[in-house]
Design brief:
The chain is α/β, with parallel strands linked by helices. The protein has 17 helices and 10 strands. Strand 3 and strand 4 form a beta hairpin.
């Protein structure tokens, strides 16, 4: 099965809320892929042949699962903050680090939202999509899902996480000014990527900072901005990743407009289902490090079987890691999970 076929299957399942489907999906990106294929991280980012080799191998060896968002051209967390002028520190062995913006909150709250077509690293990524898209399509994984960091995640990288969280309490008006701008950038960045896709199917928003707030603060500083983003793409499948273990915010998140929720393995699937209601597709919930990195294939298969045995009570759901695929994850562990889902057959 090509990834184009797998993504179509995923989208059909999500839109129909098919409670019988037993899908496996993985969020795969630069923390995992370069090391998995034995590549220098900078070469993975900027050498098309290395990048294509990684995704071609993933498509082949992880057949029977869906790669989310698919052929993803990303530069770690650097794209959106770079548009605001944040400095980026590169590394050959892991994704780059984003350095806090020197102007701080006072400068950022007054900044114009960056334009993805002209500012920071985003135009370079868009050019990569334009250049690589034909080869991606020929190889079976055309770009179909756009991805962006969420408004709080962008703000956290620009200010530093601690500084951002403190500012929500000490200078909330300035934080809202900044979040207006990071939210506008997130929407524009998703639209710019979608414009380079021949048949766009969805958007993926990643924002772990939402889970660092209490429910009252999340209702003020997170949910309105997430709704603004997801409401901008009503006809696409909307996937939200937040693997900070804080179920207290889930009751609010059920109203943010997401279709699929990828969340922490530390939260029981049953609790997530209870808090999120019957219709949001749960995406999880295997421990990404203790199990998928450090465990054996037999242990991974057994854990997957245990979740699948409860499928009727948890569906609609997609079997996955409770987060992205972590650095050092052996491919055989992911294949063991796929094998368990295949063996389970239809519900």
């Amino acid at each position: 099965m090509t990834q184009a076929e797998a993504l179509n299957w995923f989208v059909r399942t999500v839109r129909s809320r098919d409670r019988a489907a037993r899908l496996v999906a993985w969020i795969v990106d630069s923390p995992w892929l370069p090391g998995w294929i034995g590549a220098d991280t900078l070469h993975f980012f900027f050498d098309t042949n290395v990048w294509m080799r990684a995704y071609e191998r993933a498509q082949t060896e992880l057949d029977g699962s869906v790669l989310i968002p698919g052929g993803w051209i990303e530069l770690g967390m650097a794209a959106e903050p770079s548009g605001f002028g944040a400095a980026i520190r590169w590394n050959r062995h892991e994704p780059p680090n984003v350095l806090a913006h020197p102007g701080g909150l006072d400068a950022l709250r007054r900044a114009d939202p960056p334009d993805p077509e002209t500012d920071g690293l985003m135009p370079a990524i868009l050019a990569m999509y334009e250049r690589r898209a034909p080869a991606m399509a020929a190889a079976g994984f055309p770009p179909r899902i756009a991805a962006a960091r969420g408004p709080l995640a962008i703000a956290g990288h620009l200010l530093g996480i601690t500084e951002f969280l403190l500012a929500t309490q000490t200078d909330p008006d300035a934080v809202h000014d900044l979040l207006d701008r990071t939210c506008a950038l997130g929407i524009a960045w998703l639209r710019a990527q979608l414009a380079r896709m021949d048949h766009p199917l969805g958007v993926l928003v990643l924002d772990d900072l939402v889970g660092m707030l209490g429910p009252a603060d999340a209702a003020v500083f997170a949910l309105p901005y997430l709704r603004r983003i997801f409401d901008s793409f009503p006809h696409l499948v909307r996937i939200f990743h937040n693997d900070t273990p804080n179920p207290a915010v889930y009751d609010g998140l059920r109203t943010c407009g997401m279709d699929v929720f990828n969340f922490s393995h530390e939260i029981a699937l049953a609790e997530a289902r209870r808090r999120l209601g019957p219709d949001i597709v749960l995406m999880g919930n295997l421990p990404p490090v203790d199990l998928l990195v450090r465990g054996s294939p037999d242990a991974c298969r057994a854990a997957a079987e245990a979740i699948l045995a409860r499928h009727a009570d948890l569906a609609p759901m997609v079997l996955s890691a409770g987060g992205g695929v972590s650095p050092g994850t052996p491919g055989e562990n992911l294949r063991a999970v796929i094998a368990a889902a295949r063996a389970a057959g239809p519900a």
